[in-house]
Amino acid sequence: MTETNPQRGNRLDPWLDSYATRAYGLRESETRSLFAVASRPEVVSLAGGMPNLKDLPLDALAEATARMIRKDGGRALQYGNGQGMPRLREQIPEVMALEGIDADPEDVVITTGSQQAVDIVTELFIDPGDVILTEAPTYVGSLSIFSTYQADIQQAPIDADGVIPEALEETIAGLERQGRRIKFFYCLPNFHNPAGVTLSEERRPQVIDICRRHHILIIEDNPYGLLDFQGRTHTALKTLAPDDVVYLGSFSKIFAPGYRVGWAVAPPAVREKMKLASEAAILCPSSVGQFSISTYLDNFDWRGQIEAFRTMYRRRRDAMVEALAEFMPMCTWNVPEGGFYVWVGLPDGLDAKEMLPRAVTNLVAYVSGTAFYAGGSAGRDHMRLSFCYPEPVDIREGVRRLSEVVAHDLDL
Ligand code: PMP
C-alpha cells in the first residue's frame, strides 16, 4: 500500500506534485481574468474581442437549424470525418476566394475554431525549448498555447506596416548565431490583434523571402481578413507561397464564434499530420456546428452579412478614433482599416498594467499591452482598445472615462 506523504501537494491542491512540467506554466491570461469585472453592466468594456452578433438574423437561423436537424439530423448529430465535413471543406475555398486565395478542399482541415489549429500546429512542430518567432506584440491566445508547449518565444518588432523585414531578418540571424533553429514564424498579416495594423503589400514577398532563405514555416493567422472597412483585400501569404504557409481561417468573426468552427489549409504532408493530431485530440470537429455553418453558407446571403459586419465595425472604429481625438490627445494611436482593435500608446512614464485597476474603478476596461508580449515589462506603455462590441455612444463614453484616468495618472 502506498503511504500518503503529507508533504506532497497542499491543502488547496493535493495534486500539486503530480502535474506535468507544462502545467505549471498555465496561468489565467490577463484578458481572461478581466472578463468577470469587465462584464459588469456598468463597466464599458473596451477589453474583450467578442464579435458583435446583434445583426445576425436569429429567427431565420433558428428555423434553418431546425430544418437541418429534421432533414439531416442522422449525420449532423453523429460523429463525423476527422478532417471535417466534406461539403464544408468544399465551401471553405469559396470563402477564401473572396481574398483571392486558391485552396483545394483536400488541403482543408476543419478545427474547433482557429484556436485549435494553432494548438495542433504547435503540438506538431514544438518540442520543449524550440523557438517560435512571433510579431511583437502578438495574439495573447496563441502565446498561451506556445507557452503550454514550453516553446522559447522570440518576437520581432512591427510598425504601422506590420512586421519590419530588416528586424525580422536580424532577429533570425541573431538566433541562428546562437545555434538556435526557428520552427515557425507565427504572423497576423491583416488587422493585427492587438496592434490593428496590416502588413503592407510591399513587405509580404519580403517576409516570405526571408522565411524561405532560413527554412522557416509560416503560420498565417487570418481571422479578420474579410473585415476590411473599405471592402479591399490583401494578398495572402498563402497565395504568394502555398508550400511554405499553413493558413488559418475562422468563422468566428465573419459569422459567429459559438459554433467553434475554424480551419487550416496546409501543404499536403503537414495537412495529413494535422488531421491525425486533430483526430487524436477530438475525434472530429463538432458535426452540428459544421452542418449549421454549411447550411448557412448554402441558404443565406453570407457575403451580404460580411458587408453588414464591415459597416457596423467601421462605425464603431470611427466612434473610437473620434473619441480618442477628442479626449485623449496626450496619447498616440493608429487608425485600423479593418478588424477590431486600436493600439493606444500612453504618454511617457504611464503604465497600462498598473493603471488598469483605476480604470475599472472608473468603469472602463481595456487590456494592458503587457498581455501581448512573451515576457519582461514590454507593452506597459500600450493598451489594446476593442471597438467591436459596445455601441458607438458607449465607446465614446468609455474613452472619455479612460481619458480621466490617464489625465489623473499624468497629474493633469
Ligand atoms: N487568432 C486570432 C488572431 C484571434 O484574435 C482569435 C480570436 N480572438 C483566434 C485566433 C481564435 O479564434 P477562433 O478560435 O474563435 O477561431
From TrEMBL:
Record keywords, A-Z: Aminotransferase, DNA-binding, Pyridoxal phosphate, Transferase
Ranges for domain Aminotransferase class I/classII large: 51-402
Cofactor section: pyridoxal 5'-phosphate
InterPro entries associated with the record: Aminotransferase_I/II_large, Class-I_PLP-dep_aminotransf, PyrdxlP-dep_Trfase, PyrdxlP-dep_Trfase_major, PyrdxlP-dep_Trfase_small
Name of one Pfam family that matches: Aminotran_1_2
GO MF terms, alphabetically ordered: DNA binding; pyridoxal phosphate binding; transaminase activity
One BP term from GO: alpha-amino acid metabolic process
Domain of life: Bacteria
Family the entry assigns: Belongs to the class-I pyridoxal-phosphate-dependent aminotransferase family.
Subunit structure and binding partners: Homodimer.
Identification of the protein by name: DNA-binding transcriptional regulator, MocR family, contains an aminotransferase domain
Species whose genome carries this gene: Actinomyces ruminicola
